[in-house]
């Protein structure tokens, strides 16, 4: 049963254009979310945004990062299908250090970094620009 569940997750998130209608809906959802994130990052740079708008952008970022994090964890979970190896850990590491795995990680890490280490605000602004790596995720869904 667990293998069946893993196969369903794989078919949903990793089958590409040859997948089911649910897979295509998933792909379009992620692509739309990525594009909206790029727009949100650009809008955040505008001066004079109201506190309400800034709060909405922050909420959108939190929801987006949650979706991207779940997707990343699911990809690690199915890594023994997508990146076969002798054991699950090796498969997971093969995914994590693959180009798409690194792009996925770089897309979410700026959100979590301030929770882990004390960061200078200037450095944090530079790290926030790394969120543009989310746009590179589109290559997987094209």
Report the structural category. mainly alpha
What's the multimeric state? single chain
In round numbers, the mean pLDDT is: 84
In percent, how helical is the residue content?
A: over 70%
Kindly report how far apart the N and C termini lie.
31 Å
Coarse shape: globular
Order of helices and strands: HHHHHHHH
Q: What integer value in Å does the Rg equal?
A: 17 Å
Instruction: Please describe the biggest sheet, giving its number of strands, its sense, and whether it closes into a barrel.
Output: none
DSSP strand count:
0
Please mark out the parts with pLDDT under 50 across 5 or more consecutive residues, or reply none. Answer: none
Number of helical segments?
8
Question: How much of the residues is beta strand, in percent?
Answer: under 5%
Characterize the structure shown.
With 142 residues, the chain is mainly alpha-helical. The protein has helices spanning 2-13, 21-44, 51-77, 79-82, 88-96, 99-116, 121-129, 138-141. The model has no long low-confidence stretch (mean pLDDT 84).
């Amino acid at each position: 049963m667990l293998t069946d569940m893993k196969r369903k997750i794989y078919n949903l998130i990793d089958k590409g254009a040859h997948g089911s209608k649910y897979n295509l809906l998933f792909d379009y959802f992620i692509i739309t979310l990525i594009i909206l994130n790029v727009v949100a990052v650009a809008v955040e740079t505008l001066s004079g945004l109201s506190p309400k708008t800034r709060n909405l952008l922050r909420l959108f970022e939190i929801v987006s990062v949650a979706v991207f994090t779940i997707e990343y964890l699911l990809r690690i979970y199915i890594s023994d299908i997508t990146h076969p190896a002798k054991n699950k850990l090796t498969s997971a590491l093969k995914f994590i250090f693959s180009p798409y795995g690194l792009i996925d990680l770089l897309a979410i890490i700026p959100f979590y970094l301030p929770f882990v280490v004390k960061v200078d605000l200037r450095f944090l602004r530079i790290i926030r620009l790394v969120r543009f790596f989310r746009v590179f995720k589109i290559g997987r869904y094209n």
